[in-house]
Specification:
The protein has 216 residues and is an alpha+beta fold. It has one domain. The chain is built from 6 helices and 9 strands, in the order ββαβαβααβββββαα. Helix 5 runs antiparallel to helix 6.
């Protein structure tokens, strides 16, 4: 049996995630990941997984049934527009991903888009491909499916709890603000294309998100 990677060996793993297979590099393989030629490709979502997760109320990360509370692992821009490209997970699974996933826990990590397999499908909506530098676990009791031209997005409900992470630890307000400052121009550029009403709406969304930031 493959051992956990040394970088995450000391991070307590939720019991549901502990049942997931381990990749050759020592990372638990989330339920949504596609297996290609006998190996997991963390960049690729297995066919049908999004629909399965939504219809079956299954955790995006461990694949087991969700309870009343659901957690979305998102970035600051998603906290502003309250939209996620991925279905929800258990809170414990989401928090584990925020501290153990190399992309989510390491701000300098970049997405590897080289030699993407044919099975790969672009994320629905207008995807922001950067690493935001911080991760947010957004716990809620509800969400809605939003149909878009190239798939479906998830409009997250009002949060019952939010937890910000950076470098695998609680994020500071300064770190979250830095991520917002660098990412907001991307949302503003899209809003400008849609006209003054969209720009005003984005400003309201930003104001709505500010109270969710860490206190210090």
């Amino acid at each position: 049996m493959t051992e956990l990677n040394a970088s995450i060996r000391d991070i307590p793993i939720p019991w549901r995630m502990a049942s997931r297979p381990i990749s050759p590099k020592g990372y638990p393989v989330p339920w949504f990941v596609a297996w290609l030629d006998g190996l997991p490709d963390f960049r690729v979502i297995a066919p049908g997984r999004i629909a399965q997760a939504h219809k079956g109320r299954l955790c995006w990360l461990c694949g087991q049934p969700l309870g009343r509370f659901m957690a979305f692992t998102i970035g600051p821009m998603c906290a502003i527009n309250r939209v996620s490209a991925e279905p929800p997970s258990h809170r414990e699974c989401a928090e584990y991903a925020a501290v153990a996933c190399p992309f989510l826990s390491q701000p300098k990590m970049r997405r590897n888009t080289a030699d993407m397999p044919e099975e790969h499908e672009p994320a629905p909506g207008v995807a922001i491909m950067r690493n935001p530098g911080v991760a947010l676990v957004w716990v809620t009791k509800s969400y809605k499916v939003m149909r878009v031209e190239n798939g479906a997005l998830f409009q997250v409900g009002d949060p019952t709890e939010v937890k910000w992470f950076c470098h695998g630890r609680p994020a500071t307000r300064v770190e979250v603000m830095a991520s917002i400052s660098s990412g907001l121009p991307l949302l503003e550029a899209e809003a400008i294309k849609d006209g003054p009403e969209a720009v005003a709406e984005l400003a309201r969304y930003v104001d709505r998100a500010m109270p969710l930031l860490p206190a210090g």
